[in-house]
UniProtKB/TrEMBL annotation:
Compartments where located: Endosome
Organism encoding this protein: Rhododendron griersonianum
Reported function: Component of the commander complex that is essential for endosomal recycling of transmembrane cargos; the commander complex is composed of the CCC subcomplex and the retriever subcomplex. Component of the retriever complex, which is a heterotrimeric complex related to retromer cargo-selective complex (CSC) and essential for retromer-independent retrieval and recycling of numerous cargos such as integrin alpha-5/beta-1 (ITGA5:ITGB1). The recruitment of the retriever complex to the endosomal membrane involves CCC and WASH complexes.
Subunit structure, interactors included: Component of the commander complex that is essential for endosomal recycling of transmembrane cargos; the commander complex is composed of the CCC subcomplex and the retriever subcomplex. Component of the heterotrimeric retriever complex consisting of VPS26C, VPS29 and VPS35L; within the complex interacts with VPS35L. Interacts with SNX17 (via C-terminus); the interaction is direct and associates SNX17 with the retriever complex. Interacts with SNX31; the interaction is direct.
An example Gene Ontology biological process: intracellular protein transport
Lineage summary: Eukaryota, Viridiplantae, Streptophyta, Embryophyta, Tracheophyta
Alphabetical list of PANTHER family matching this protein: VACUOLAR PROTEIN SORTING 26 RELATED
GO cellular component: endosome
UniProt KW Nucleotide-binding keyword: no
Similarity section: Belongs to the VPS26 family.
InterPro entries to which the protein is assigned, alphabetical: Arrestin-like_C, Ig_E-set, Vps26-related
Record keyword Zinc-finger present: no
Gene3D superfamilies membership: 2.60.40.640
Protein name: Vacuolar protein sorting-associated protein 26C
Amino acid sequence: MSVEIKLSRSNRIYRPNEPLEGTIVTKSPSSFSHSAIRLTVNGSVTLQIRGGSAGVIESVYGVLKPISIVNKSVEVKSSGRIGSGTTEIPFSVILKNPGDGNLESFYETFHGADISIQYLVTVEILRGYLHKSLSATVEFIIETAKANLPDQEISPEMVLFYITQDTQRHPLLPELKSGGFRVTGKICTQCSLSDPISGELTVEASAVPILSIDIHLLRVESTLLGERIITETSLIQTTQAILIADGDVCRQMTLPIYVIVPRLLTCPTIYAGPFSIEFKVSIVITFASELSKLHPKSDPRTPRQWLAMESVPLELVRMKYFSNSVNIRLLDNVPDSNLHLDTFRHASSPPTNFHMSDDIGLD
């Protein structure tokens, strides 16, 4: 005897103004009676305080009180009897009534290290005091309603970066400090969730051979605890070196940057009262040395003598329309005399018309 929930959409993506539809499927060798079939929809923001930047006292708090987004319970069927074999019972639940206004913020689904925004639907078949109730739970994905997205076009933003031995704030190998290196490029700092993070980089000079160039996507989760803001930065996903550069790079060759934004592990950048979710892109250059061979799997967030890195903030948004034009600005550490905007405005870029299909499954 079992029960499961099958949602009407294979990708499990719904908007707050849409009904959550599906079927409750029961399988039983014989018929059985029940007192009610109840469906519960629950959405909440779970905040957790861990070690790292949190102090000893803050870590004691552990999990904070969840922030409720939606909590609805409906009775699909009153008391009755379910026959033997496979039985399908359809259901439909309105997530947000039109008259609710903006009292509740339906944040998009997000699975982070310290912050989790999750929406669950649970079915429970009550069978009385003498029998154990049957239940099943499935997660569904919430995305911002298209009607609530701005109608005007938004131009994606790019930043010019400039990586040399002088821009690094950590100690470098003597041969890197004396010989020098220079890597320039551009990368998105405002990007649609349905588009890849794109850009390009050029190794103009390097006295030491390059082992690899990696792009790392980081999440920055901040939680308000009393009068303190606890911020943790963690790695979301690593684009393997083969996608950017594997081995020493030809000088003056333009290399494309093209990173698919992972679903569920990202969401639109959020600045809420008790928490915020931000993102960063980190460009990490590993130089060939004896030390880099001894530590091939070092944490990319930790500066090392054989690494050069640059991090730029990334704003993720969900928009109806994204303009083909691109706004380009200089990173704070880029001297105007070294890079010129006109050089990059006419430079080649990776394709920007790629969109992830809504029909792609989660598996």
